[in-house]
Amino acid sequence: MEHRSGHFKTNLSGESAYQSFVPSPLPPYPDIELTNEIIKLLISSHAQLAVLNDLSCYIPNVNLFISMYVRKEALMSSQIEGTQATLEDVLNPTIEENSNRNVAEVINYIKASEFALERIQTLPFSARLLREIHGILMQGVRGQEKNPAEFRTSQNWIGGQGRTLSNARYVPPTPEDMAVAISDLENFIHEEDGIDSLIKIALIHYQFETIHPFLDGNGRVGRLMINLFLMDKDVLLTPALYISYYLKQNRIEYYDRLTEVRMKGNYEQWVQFFLEAVYESAKDAVTRIHQLNDLHNKNHNLILTLGRSAQSVMEVFNYIEANPIIEIGKTAKAINMSFNSVSSAVKKLIENKILVQENENTRNRTFIYKDYLDILRDGTE
């Protein structure tokens, strides 16, 4: 049956026969119906993003917070795909020695995000950019054998273990149909069609997930595209929106609503869900930035009362705001201070309940900026 979002077609014959989806080009026809609920959410989402943008202009240490949000988004987006890692794993100062593949996947997502934000300054939002992002995302991790940085040339499918093409939950377009669909999507991305940017990225994300152009990593690339597109359109000034926070909390509904578009052509329910995700994620980010800024001001002012040791303690404090789990030797090297000076500063920070020691191991002791991590950790467990 064909409807707004596309149709299923039969491939091969006999026992080998299977049905793949052929998506209709965007924008949908007829146009997205702007219901009262969608209009209300659209206004609320833009207003909340404006507040988030304003914060990034007047809070002096906001870049530190945002670097943490990139990590939080990377972690939660990877967790949606089943990656087993925690915020502490990702921030561990001995991460280079950590052979945990789950952590490596999150680290790759962070690298891919940072690369994408830099690359889009010189390369338009395009299929080529998505392939480059994918290459970084899949480097040295599970799925690295599945053609990193290349669109697939074989059929893939979505389903649990043991599922096959004939009983898969969803079969994306064949490689030939996928190539056409990606080209159509690229055209839509660059069209000056007057569609609101939040609605447009909702449609782009749906279409990308539906096309599933890579053999692995599609979900992570598809979610990474959201901040990238909104920043490219100047709707978002910094990558402070961690939309995977909401998508992870509502993971089953997230997948069900994407399926609803494919099965019934009902884009409106997906757009509404996506706008709810943007609004709730932006609102949460605003709350966290205020909390982190209040914590910064409180501890900054406390350190100023420490007399002669204030300067060295402040240097270590500035470092832990970017690296909330530290090890003395690495910290000393990073900020060009002696081991003993850092050790004394850490002792002062512990006495003033800013740092806590994580383990009793005298060789590799690590110290945690616990109050800071507690604010960031919410939603990542």
Automatic annotation (TrEMBL):
Protein name stated in the entry: Fic family protein
SUPFAM superfamilies per the record? Fic-like
Q: Where on the tree of life does the source sit, at the highest rank?
A: Bacteria
Ranges of residues in domain Fido:
125-276
- Please name one Pfam family that this protein belongs to: Fic_N
